[in-house]
C-alpha cells in the first residue's frame, strides 16, 4: 500500500522506526497498520512501535524504538553519549538502551530498555538532535558519577575534553546545576585538573600520584610548541625536562612508535631531556617514579627535595 507522505518522512527521519500514534497522526488508520504488519512490511519492536524491515536492528533503530516506546523520553547516560559520539567511539552497543523520562511520569519500559526519571527533563534534553537525547555534558556527568571506578570516571570526562567534544568549564557548569551528585566534590576537583591540562587518565594520575603527592614543582601541561614536525603538544613540561605520558597499551603501531621517537629527538634538539612514562610508572610505581623525576629535576637546578606521600611511601633516596 502507498505510504502517506508524512509517514514516509517520519520513517526516513527515524531510521525506519515509527510509533502507532505517529502513524495515525500521519494519515494511517488501524486497518492500514494491521495490513502492513500482516504483510511483514512493518515488524513490532516494542508494543506500539514498528520498524519497516524484518532484519536485525541497528543500534540507531533500537535507540529510536526505545525513545518512542515511552514518549516523551530521551536517550540518557551511556546511550546518550553513544548517540553524541557515534559508532566507533568505544561505547557498548549490545546492552540495554538507556533513556530518561520526566520525574513525574511512572513508566514501565519494555524489555531491553532502562528508564531513569529525572527532574528538569526538558532543560536537560537537547532540543534539536535526533533521536532526542540528554545534553552531552549532563550525560557525561551522569555516566562519570555512577562509574565503577575513579579511573573510569576520569576517562569519561577527560576523553570528551581531549576529543574536543566539550570543555572542562561546560562539564563543571553541568555538575554545578545538578546539586548533590555521587562523587560530586571529587568530580569537581577532577574537572579543575582537566581544565589545567590533565587531559587523560594517565595525565591525571601523574598529576596526583606523582607530582602533587610527592611535592614536585608544578609543571606546564599540554604546552604547544613549534618544531620541525609542526606544532606539537608536550604532555608535561618542566624547565629542562619533558615528560611524555604514553597511554597506549596493545594497539601501538610502528608508525606511532616512529612518530614518538621523532618527538623525542625534537626535545633533545631543544636542549631538554625527554622521558616517556606509562601506566606502570604512574599507577603501580608512582613513588619510585617520583623519586627518579625528582633526581632529574635536581640535576637541572631544582632545589628539591621530593617529599613522601605517606607512611608507606617508597620514595627512593637519591
Give an overview in words.
This protein has 318 residues and is α+β, with helices and mostly antiparallel strands. It is built from 13 helices and ten strands. A four-stranded mixed beta sheet has the order 7-8-9-10, with helices on both faces. A hairpin with a 2-residue loop joins strand 2 (43-46) and strand 3 (49-51). The longest helix is centred in the last third of the chain and has 16 residues, at 254-269. The radius of gyration is 26 Å and the shape is elongated. The N and C termini lie far apart (83 Å). The model has no long low-confidence stretch (mean pLDDT 89).
Looking at this protein, list some descriptive labels.
about 325 residues; alpha+beta; 4-stranded mixed sheet; 3-stranded antiparallel sheet; about 15% strand
Reconstruct the topology from this structure.
Blueprint: H1 5-13, E1 17-19, H2 20-25, H3 30-38, E2 43-46, E3 49-51, H4 59-69, E4 74-75, H5 77-85, E5 97-102, E6 113-118, H6 136-145, H7 150-162, H8 168-177, H9 184-196, H10 201-212, E7 220-227, E8 230-237, E9 241-245, H11 254-269, E10 273-277, H12 279-284, H13 286-299
Parallel strand pairs: 5-6, 9-10
Antiparallel strand pairs: 1-3, 2-3, 4-5, 7-8, 8-9
Helix pairs in contact: 5-6, 6-7, 6-8, 7-9, 8-9, 10-13
Amino acid at each position: 500500500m502507498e505510504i502517506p507522505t508524512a509517514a514516509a518522512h517520519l520513517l526516513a527521519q527515524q531510521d525506519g522506526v515509527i510509533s502507532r500514534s505517529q502513524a495515525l497522526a500521519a494519515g494511517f488508520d488501524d486497518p492500514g497498520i494491521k495490513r502492513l504488519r500482516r504483510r511483514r512490511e512493518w515488524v513490532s519492536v516494542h508494543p506500539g512501535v514498528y520498524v519497516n524491515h524484518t532484519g536485525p536492528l541497528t543500534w540507531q533503530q533500537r535507540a529510536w524504538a526505545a525513545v518512542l516506546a515511552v514518549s516523551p523520553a530521551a536517550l540518557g547516560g551511556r546511550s546518550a553519549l553513544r548517540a553524541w559520539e557515534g559508532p566507533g567511539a568505544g561505547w557498548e552497543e549490545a546492552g540495554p538502551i538507556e533513556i530518561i523520562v520526566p520525574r513525574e511520569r511512572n513508566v514501565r519500559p519494555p524489555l531491553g530498555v532502562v528508564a531513569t526519571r529525572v527532574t528538569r527533563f526538558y532543560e536537560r534534553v537537547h532540543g534539536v538532535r535526533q533521536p532526542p537525547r540528554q545534553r552531552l555534558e549532563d550525560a557525561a556527568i551522569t555516566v562519570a558519577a555512577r562509574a565503577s571506578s575513579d579511573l573510569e570516571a576520569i576517562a569519561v570526562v577527560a576523553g570528551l575534553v581531549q576529543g574536543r567534544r566539550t570543555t572542562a568549564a561546560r562539564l563543571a557548569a553541568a555538575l554545578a546545576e545538578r546539586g548533590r551528585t555521587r562523587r560530586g566534590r571529587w568530580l569537581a576537583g577532577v574537572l579543575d585538573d582537566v581544565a589545567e591540562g590533565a587531559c587523560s587518565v594517565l595525565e591525571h594520575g601523574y598529576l596526583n600520584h606523582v607530582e602533587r603527592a610527592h611535592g614536585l614543582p608544578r609543571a606546564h601541561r599540554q604546552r604547544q610548541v613549534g618544531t620541525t614536525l609542526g606544532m606539537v603538544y608536550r604532555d608535561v613540561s618542566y624547565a629542562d625536562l619533558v615528560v611524555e605520558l604514553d597511554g597506549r597499551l596493545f594497539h601501538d603501531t610502528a608508525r606511532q612508535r616512529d612518530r614518538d621517537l621523532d618527538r623525542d629527538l625534537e626535545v633533545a634538539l631543544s636542549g631538554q631531556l625527554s622521558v616517556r612514562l606509562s601506566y606502570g610508572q604512574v599507577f603501580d610505581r608512582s613513588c619510585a617514579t617520583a623519586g627518579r623525576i625528582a633526581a632529574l629535576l635536581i640535576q637541572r637546578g631544582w632545589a628539591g627535595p621530593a617529599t613522601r606521600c605517606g607512611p608507606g611511601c617508597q620514595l627512593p633516596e637519591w
